C-alpha cells in the first residue's frame, strides 16, 4: 500500500469541511455558511466558510486551506536551514454560540510536508464551556477517548495531557476550558503506517460534529440572564487572550502574512474585560474557574 | 549639579500619577479611582488606580510602579549577559471612554537602570479616535509639538515618526490611531544633561491631562447612535489586537510574571470582531480607516 499523498489528504479534509458545514447549518436552523475562496500568494489557497447571527451560533468559521511555497523566514529557524519549500493543508474551526450555556468549540486537523522529506500530521479538539457541567464534560471526553482508542490505546492519555499543556493561559494560570486532545508532529509509530495515521486524523475530524451536537442539544434550551451573559463576555475575553498571545496557528498566520480575516475568524463577535473581577463565593462562575486546571480526569 | 537619582524620579512619577487621577476624576464628574497597592516579588511594587463606569470613562487605569530585582530571563538576551539587576519606574495610562466620539488615549513615561551602569528614559502619548476629526487631531499634535519644542527642536519630528512606527498593527497594515510621540532608550544628547532629559519626560507626563481634556470637552456632548457604538467595538477590537500581539510593555509584563490585572487594565470593558467588515463607501468610518496610515502630517 502506498502512503496517502498530499492531494488525497487535501481532498479528504475538503470533504470533512463540507460535511461539517452542512451538519452545522442544520443544527443552527437559520443561517448558512458564506464561502470566501482565496489564493495564497505563492501557491494554493483556501475556502473560508463563516456563519454569523444564526439561531444558535453567533459567529463561527470552518476554514479549509491548502497552500505551498517558500518556507516563511520566522519558521526557518524551527525547521533547519535545509528546508526551503513547504506544503500544508488543514481544516480549522472555532464556533462562538450566543448562549452562555452552550460551549465554545475548536477543532483543527492539519498535514505538513517539507522539501527535505519530512512530513507529519497535527490536530486537536477542545471545548471551552462558559459554565462547566461535569456530566457534559465527561460526555465530551468520552467521545474523544472512543475515537482515540479505535486507533491506539496510548492516544487518549497522551493527547489529553498534551491538550492540557497546550490550551493553557500561563499569565492567568488557567486552562482555556476543559481541554480535549491535541497532537503535533505526529508520524507513524512502530508498526503503524501513514494510512493508519491519516485514518486517525480524519476520524478526529469526523468526531467534531457528533461531539459538539451532543453538547449543543443538552444546553441550547437553558435560559440565561444578564449575569450569565456578562460572565460569557469575560470568558470570551480569555479566549481572545489565548488566541492572540499563545495560539501557534494564529502566530504562524500573523507572521507569514496569512489571510487575516481567516486567521482571526476565531475571535468572538463580542468580548469583555473587567478589572480585578472575582466571582462570588460558591457561585457557578467560581466553580468553573476552580476547574480550569491541568490534569483533571473528566472521565471519572 | 548631580544627576536625578532613582528616588527623585520615582517620586516625580508618583506625583504625576496623583495629579492626573485628581484631574480625571473632576473631568469625569462621577466616579473615583480605586487604588490597589501591590508588591513585586523581589523589590518595590506599585499603585494600580482604576476607574470603571464613570460618566465619561467606561474603563481606565493610571498605574504607577517602581520595581527592582534580578533581570528576568527573557530580557537577558536583549541586555547582554553582564546585566543581572534592574530598577524600573513608570506611569502608564489607558482610558476607554463610553462615547465613540471621545478618543481612547494612552500615555507612558518610564525610567530604567541596570547594574551595569546603563540607564535611560522612555515614554509616549498616543491618541486613538474611533472617528478621526482633522481639527482635533491637529490640536492634539500641536500640544505634543509644543512640549517637545520646549526641550529640543528635533524631538517632535523624531518622536512622531517613532510613534507612527511603534503604534502600528502590521497584520492590519494600519496604525492604532493618529499616533503622537514615542521614545525609548533615551539618554542625554550632546550638550544635554540627565536633569534636562528628566524635565522633558515629566513635561510629557504633565501634558497628558490638558491634551486629553481638550479632546474630551470637544467631543463628549456629541450624540452617538447604535451604528457608532458598533464601530467603536470594532476599533476597540483592534486596540486589543495591538496590545496583546505587539505592545512591548504588555509582552514584558506577561513574560516577567507581572501583576496581570495591572498589565491588562489597558483592555476595554467590551470589544468586538466581525468577519470581513467593510465600512460603506464615503462613510465617516471609511474616512477614519483611510487615515490610519504612517506619515500623515496632522499639523497641516
Q: What this model shows, in words?
A:
- Two copies of one chain form a homodimer.
- In chain A, helix 1 packs parallel to helix 5 and helix 3 packs antiparallel against helix 5.
- The first copy, chain A, is an alpha+beta fold and 300 residues long.
- The longest helix of chain A is centred in the C-terminal third of the chain and has 26 residues.
- The model of chain A has no long low-confidence stretch (mean pLDDT 95).
- The first copy, chain A, has a seven-stranded antiparallel beta sheet with strand order 1-2-3-4-5-6-9. A two-stranded antiparallel sheet of chain A has the order 7-8.
- At the A-B interface, helix 6, helix 8 and strand 10 of A face helix 6, helix 8 and strand 10 of B.
- Strand 10 of chain A pairs antiparallel with strand 10 of chain B.
Short description:
Two copies of one chain form a homodimer. The first copy, chain A, is about 40% helix and about 25% strand. The first copy, chain A, has helices at about 5-30, 75-80, 135-150, 155-165, 195-220, 225-245, 250-255, 260-265, 285-290, and strands at about 35-40, 45-50, 55-70, 85-95, 105-115, 120-130, 170, 175, 180-185, 270.
